[in-house]
Amino acid sequence: MNAHRVTALIAEDEPLLAQALQSELQALWPELEVLANVRNGEAAVERTLALRPDLVFLDIRMPGMTGIEATQAISEDWEEGAALPLIVFVTAYDQYALQAFEHAAIDYVLKPVETERLRKTCMRLQAALAARREPNQSRPEQLEATLAQLRGLLGAPGIAEAAAPLLTVIQAGVGAAIQLVPITDVIYFEAADKYLRVLTASREYLIRLSLRQLLPQLDARIFWQVHRSTVVRADAIAAALRDESGRLQLKLRQRPELLPVSRLYAHQFKAM
C-alpha cells in the first residue's frame, strides 16, 4: 500500500447503505479517509468542490439531482486543468444498464455492496491513482477520457430518460392564455429553478418542465446541450469564442447574450 493520503466522499440517500459502504471501505482500505457522507446530489456537488476528495462514491438514484447529474456538475465546476476525482457509482441497475460502465474510467458497485466486488473496485482505484502520479501521464488526456465516459453515460440505455416523441411546439402559459411556440423559433432553453426558460429571438417564456424531461423530446442533431443547464439550437450559433481564461462562449445570431460552454461539451466545437 502506498503512503500517499487518499480521501473520499460518499453520497447515498439511504443511511444504512451509506454506513455499510463506509464500513466495508474502511476494512478493505484502512488508509482511505472518508471526508464526508452526504444524502443528496446537491450536497455531493457542494462538498466535493469544497473538500476536493480523490474519490467520490455516488448513488445514481438520489432525490433531486441524480448521481450522474452530480458528476456532470462537478466536472463543469472543477478547477480548470486539475484532475477530476475518480468516480464510483453505487447502483441497483440491472446488468443491461451496467454495460455502459464496463471497461470504463468510471467504475460502479451494485447494491447491496458485495465485499469481493468492492475489493476489485478498490484495487482498480489504487492502480488509477498510482498511474496519475506517473510523470509520463498526460493530465489533459486523462481528463478528456473521463469526460468522454461521462458523455456516454448521460445518454446510456437504462440510465437516460426514455425516448419520447419529438416536440414540434412548446406550450407556454402567458397570463390566462396558452402560447404555442414553434420549436423552430426557439434559440435556446435554460434551466431556472423548477422552470425552463424558453428563449426565441424576441421573447422569453417559462414552462414547468425539467431539462431532464425535455432532452428526450428534442432532436439531438438540431438542439445541442452545451452546459448542464443550457440547450441551444445549433443553427442559431454564429461562433464559438474563447475568453481570457480559455473557456468557450457561444455568440448567437439573433440574441445578444453569450452562452457559456462547459468542458464536458466543448468537444462539439472544433474546426473542421
Topology:
Blueprint: E1 6-11, H1 15-28, E2 32-38, H2 41-51, E3 55-59, H3 67-77, E4 86-91, H4 95-98, E5 107-110, H5 115-132, H6 139-154, E6 169-174, E7 177-182, E8 188-192, E9 195-199, E10 204-207, H7 211-214, E11 223-227, E12 230-233, E13 237-242, E14 248-252, E15 258-261
Explained architecture:
This protein folds into two domains: 6-154, 3-Layer(aba) Sandwich (Rossmann fold), CATH 3.40.50; 169-268, Beta Barrel (OB fold (Dihydrolipoamide Acetyltransferase, E2P)). 29% of the residues lie in helices and 29% in strands. The chain has seven helices and 15 strands. It has helices at 15-28, 41-51, 67-77, 95-98, 115-132, 139-154, 211-214, and strands at residues 6-11, 32-38, 55-59, 86-91, 107-110, 169-174, 177-182, 188-192, 195-199, 204-207, 223-227, 230-233, 237-242, 248-252, 258-261. A five-stranded parallel β-sheet has the order 2-1-3-4-5, with helices on both faces. α2 (41-51) packs parallel to α3 (67-77) and α3 (67-77) runs antiparallel to α6. It is globular and about 60 Å long.
Number of E-state strands: 15
Distance between the termini: 47 Å
The protein's oligomeric status is single chain
Helix and strand run: EHEHEHEHEHHEEEEEHEEEEE
Q: What is the structural class?
A: alpha/beta
Please give the CATH architecture of the largest domain.
Answer: 3-Layer(aba) Sandwich
**Major beta sheet summary:** 5 strands, parallel
Share of helical residues: 25-40%
Please state the average pLDDT score: 87
Query: What fold name goes in the CATH topology slot of the largest domain?
Result: Rossmann fold
CATH homology superfamily of the largest domain: Response regulator
Discrete helix count: 7
Strand order of the largest sheet: 2-1-3-4-5
Please write the CATH class name of the largest domain. Alpha Beta
What count of structural domains? 2
Low-confidence region ranges: none
| Broad shape | globular
Beta-strand content estimate: 25-35%
- Integer-rounded radius of gyration: 20 Å
